[in-house]
Amino acid sequence: MTWLRTIVGSVLVGVGAGLASALFLFSLELVTKVRMPWLLPFGGVLLGLVLQRFHVAAIPRLFQAAATGEGPAVPWRAGPLVLFGTLLTHTFGGSAGREGTAVQMGGTLGELVATKLGERRHLIIAGIAGGFGSVFGTPIAGALFGMEVVAVRRWQWRSAVPAFIASFVGDVVCRRTGVKHTHFPHVEVSGEWWRWLALAFASALVTLAFVAALHGFKKAGARFSPPQRLFIGGVVVVALWRLVGTDEFLGLGVPSIEQAFVTAPERTAFAWKLLFTAATLGFGFLGGEVTPLFFIGATLGGALAGPLGLPLDASAGVGLAAIFAAASKSPVALAVMAAELMGISIFPAALAVCVVTTLLTGRFGIYERSVTSM
């Protein structure tokens, strides 16, 4: 009856992940409307005090449990803490995303269900898939992401059924609450292979720059306590904000992503968003990397469309997928995600560019993997 427990557990995890994502997305929409960037350093002190009191190495521990089924339990409080921290980050204008929160909440739910039903490894992967698929409205990509992201050399194929069940259930539940996901245009792809290869090389360089900046800010802040580190990080982001004189690079940046498919963005937009995001997350504010990296990839692709002779919308769409694919080492999931969001015609180019970009960046990425040989 192990398979029955796994299926029941996957459905329960999917329902929970979908409801958690809906709560998160509705809350995120509210706090974005009251953004207060000047107070980011002080919001950082508050978040630092909370993290200092309830610190958990959430994502690395989650990935270790998903890859091996072993390791210490993911504390139940990790999900609510990450939700609180992410909303706090966005309230004060930090440049962060949302997948980290959704993945953490889903994985924590998987851990909780597994304490009653067993099948810990499969249900944590199901939770990761359910969180990712429901928060973006991409259930196939969510399932693939749950299997692909936790291991570098071998996918967790035995978790395919739980991952797909949780991701599809989570997506349906989240949509039924009335959540509206970001709409992307359907694109048609054209252009010689070498033009797309050039975009892959550019995406790899930008990915490496982002990872280096992220780790550089982490290293710079490591000597300080959490409240001190987050205060400094807030000051850095506020200084960048005042330097550029625009709110464009605060928060998720969804309007700029949408605009990149219509008009060629400023050629420095991707670099500014890279700095804002690396500083926000590197100094310890909570959130995810996906949407900021979508911003970076879409604006990079849009800026290079003209020089490379590529269609603007297709170049922006492929760039959007490639940067996060390389940073998270999940090229297949991101190529499928591009197809779910922008139509199947983008899939061949997205898959080729995502794979090449990932190979060019080697093992440099944003997620710490406790297990790299699975």
TrEMBL record:
Name one matching Pfam family: Voltage_CLC
Instruction: Tell me the SUPFAM superfamilies matching this sequence.
Output: Clc chloride channel (SSF81340)
Classify the protein's membrane topology as the record does: Multi-pass membrane protein
GO molecular function (one): chloride transmembrane transporter activity
**Cellular component per GO?**
membrane
Coiled-coil segments on the chain, per record: none
Magnesium among keywords: no
List the subcellular locations: Membrane
| InterPro entries the UniProt entry points to | Cl-channel_core, ClC, ClC-type_chloride_channel
Please indicate if the UniProt record lists Membrane as a keyword: yes
Keyword set, alphabetical order: Membrane, Transmembrane, Transmembrane helix
Span-the-membrane segments of this chain are: 7-26, 38-56, 123-145, 193-217, 229-245, 274-296, 308-327, 333-360
This one is known as Chloride channel protein
Source organism lineage?
Bacteria, Pseudomonadati, Myxococcota, Myxococcia, Myxococcales
